Hints:
The protein has helices spanning 42-53, 72-80, 84-100, 113-124, 165-177, 203-220; strands at 3-8, 14-20, 30-34, 57-61, 106-111, 130-134, 152-157, 182-187. By secondary structure, it is of the alpha/beta class. The protein has a single domain, classed as Rossmann fold, CATH 3.40.50.1820. The chain has an eight-stranded mixed sheet, with helices on both faces. The longest helix has 18 residues, at 203-220.
Amino acid sequence: MGATIHYTRPDGRPCQGYYASPASRDRAAGIVVIQEWWGVNDQIKGVAERLVAMGYRALVADLYRGEVTVEAAEAEHLMNGLDFMDATTQDIQGAVDYLRAGSPKVAVTGFCMGGALTILSAIRVQGLSAAVAWYGFPPAEAADVRGMAIPLLGHFAEQDEFFLIAGVDELEARLQAANVACEIHRYPCRHAFANETRQNYDPEAAALAWRRTAAFLRTHLA
């Protein structure tokens, strides 16, 4: 099981996160995990533990500074109050730097809101080797993918009511035009299909997405 740790952002301010690692493997490759809009809850900690079982160190950056909710309205309020650029270039960059102290190989992955932040991180955060975004992407005007120099794996839902599949098509076209190494998958599901605590959970699609993720991480974090 993991525990709350504290690390320092590039601007010197303190930050915290949920950190977990394989036994006696503090030099294993690392993965920064970015929360959904609910906050750092037990489900996203479980994602970190899943990655640990795969042999990686995992750090869930606590972007809400300890606030967690199960109410959609409150989650939306917390997300709308988040400075995405600050979260990317400071909180997430700091988490990457923390993990890179143990291994030069670090990836980032995130879900929903975290998926959008994953793509922003792939563009703006230094020291990353790969990125895996799950059913979330930022507005085109906020994400100039021509600045992305690492491979990206994306998992998106064809019936997503929050992040429309047309936006995924447009994102993929921009990535290809920029010659970004990308692998974009679409699933016949609704939003949050890999979150086992939500009503849209699709175990078959989630299992396939995780198999693809495991293969991608083995390739780029070896």
